[in-house]
Design a protein that fits this description.
This protein is of the alpha+beta class. A hairpin with a 2-residue loop joins strand 9 and strand 10. It is elongated. 37% of the residues are buried. Keywords: Aminoacyl-tRNA synthetase, ATP-binding, Cytoplasm, Ligase, Magnesium, Metal-binding, Nucleotide-binding, Protein biosynthesis, RNA-binding, tRNA-binding.
Length: 841
Amino acid sequence: MRVPLSWLREYVDLPATETGRDVQAKLVAAGLEVETVEQLGAGLTGPLVVGEVLTIEELEGFKKPIRFCTVDVGTANGTGLPQEIVCGARNFAVGDKVVVVLPGAVLPGDFAIAARKTYGKVSHGMICSSDELGMGSDGDGIIVLPPEYEPGTDAIALLELVDEVLDIAVTPDRGYCLSMRGVARETATAYGLPLRDPALLDVPGPNAEGHPVEVADPFGCDRFTARTVSGLNPEARSPIWLRRRLQKAGMRPISLAVDITNYVMLELGQPLHAYDRSRVQGALGVRRAEQGEKLTTLDGVRRTLDPEDLVITDERGVIGLAGVMGGADTEIADAVPDPETGRVSGTTEVVIEAAHFDPIAIARAARRHKLPSEASKRFERGVDPLAAPAAAQRTVDLLVLLAGGTAGAGVTEVISPSAPHTVAMPADHPAKVAGVAYDRETVVRRLQQVGCDVYGQDDLVVTVPSWRPDLRAPNDLAEEVIRLEGYENLPSTLPKPPAGRGLTDRQRLHRRIGRALAGAGYTEALNYPFISEQVLDQLGLAADDPARRVVTLVNPLSDEEPALRTTLLPGLLGALRRNDGRGSHDLALFETGLVFHPSGHPAVAERLPVDHRPTDEQLAAITEALPVQPRHAAVVLAGAREQAGWWGKGRPADWADAIEAARLIARESGTELLVRAGQYGPWHPGRCAELAVVIDGDERVVGHAGELHPRVLKTLGLPARTCAMEIDLDAVEAAGTGTVEAPRIATFPVATQDVALVVDAGVPAAEVEAVLREGAGELLESIRLFDVFTGEQLGEGRKSLAYALRFRAADRTLTVEEASAARDAAIALAAERTGAVLRGA
């Protein structure tokens, strides 16, 4: 909302010395977001005067039309003689009144004016356009003034070129500040001055002579005021003061009737619409649109209406989209002269609509049709329903004054009765909220300044003013008291938290895994939890995959990603793709975060109170309504895992690195991870490991790791041989032993025994390792696979697995015989379980 300071002073008697910056500081302290104070006419100095064009001489021989003019500027030039000026504009004629800047003046932008020779003539000044004076470009060229102004009149004052404009960012809950009336009320309160309310007008009561109105949807439209004005002069133009106020407020002057409705909207905050009465057939109506109905709006677009749209109708059908934009069929007609008779035709009789519509219906219609307007912006934030009659009366008065019209005797008002909203609040509630002592008198005084009626002593009953629909609860009223008393007066106090219980086991595990992955060379990438269901197709998930059952948001941030993620991979793979596209080809990213699954029994969460702790039953009901939210961890890798250099060859990331990341997570949680060949969704069927843990004796698959399928890589635009791992952290934690114990430092030496076993190529190395671990017994400290070999000497379909076994006893030094016995026991069990044969035997 742009608020000219000169206009604001009409409603509040601000001290003459107060500047826009001073008012800004006061309004900011009162809670309004005044972003800037624009200095109009900064650096402008005269003489800038009204001139009358006496003669025009067309200069020939130039690439563009040039005119040499003599202009009467009165005594402003010190001689009283006509001023000679060269001008290229064509939209003025002899006898017109124009704006002339004389030598010695400085226009906005530090544009100094001096006499200069141009096109073979000496130009003593310039005839000005709106753009040159900082009034904005209206596309009409030179400013042509009404004929009543005398040559030599100061144009700076006449055009109100010097002013200050406050640009206020109005938050959704302060819709009343989208009007001069609302800002003036806040200014008067901030300065402790009386307010001259522009809505306090003498308004005649409704009668049977008004234009007929039928409201079929009283919920969508609870108030409709209609007035008529006839005998309008179609040639009447908006006066300078009206045009300038609209321009300063950021609106473009159009025509007198439209300018007046816009002016009243800016003044009182009530959107209005004027219909050409000759184009309205029968009664005006308000209803919901019918399926398939169409309307051509004022912007010339043919729109298909939705059954939820509120529309204005007459006997022919829809003539306007209520609260958003009128229809072209009833538009105010521009004045058009008849070339034969010279008579001017145009709108001479109007019907004025001042209505109050349901904010939600208007907001949805404006978004549905992608048609934001000044009217919809106000209706969706809440308009004072009681201001409609005053706004209609103000419009009638201005049309009578400026267009020579006659106010119709009829007044139509259709009203759905409603009681004022009241809020019960203890008098000490604002003090409890702020932590500052406010006595009852202060609370009552501040609420009355807002416009409330307050009754009661210790327990107050507050009647909320009609222009503040945002005041619905005691906390809203407390906020009003606190902001008017001054946020800057609230003391800064540090909270006193109770003694902490420390992190939960889940939080500790989450942090421990993050540190471990970062230490292993992964970079954390935090992604939004929103996905499109299309990405699940791109990942190659089966049609019946549980990950396809998503929780869809009612009001998503983006229509392209309306669902909550069921896997971390889309976000991580998107981050990898973006970084690879920007030149970072060696990537290792990880993320730990929640995924979301439908709970299977959807419920609507209850709105909790804010003045006391919710009950256990309320908290349980909210928890029950939430989706299931397990925490997952995932990694993605591409490019080189180890860089080449003087120290040796590097190597690319492969499926084994993804599996090792899962093993790292399992170690941090004290969990034994089972790794075996698997096949799932986006992973390559021959390079995918299935990850499982044992929970309460039952084996459970908790994730997958390996190299992604080439088809997935192509669809998502990922680098070749990209690898990934995702695992359910909550399940891993449940299978773990709890807190990971630090290793003990052994005081006895280790005995190392190597063993190479030949097995069928289809036997997983993890299975052989598990059997060796079991067979070696308690003396085995660790086991490591250090070589895999295949070749002709082993035979087709066979492979050699070489393991390093480390044996150690906690109470003695092992003998060679003990270590060898443990080794032989492990080999024997491996031979029995897997068919392994000792290589070379």
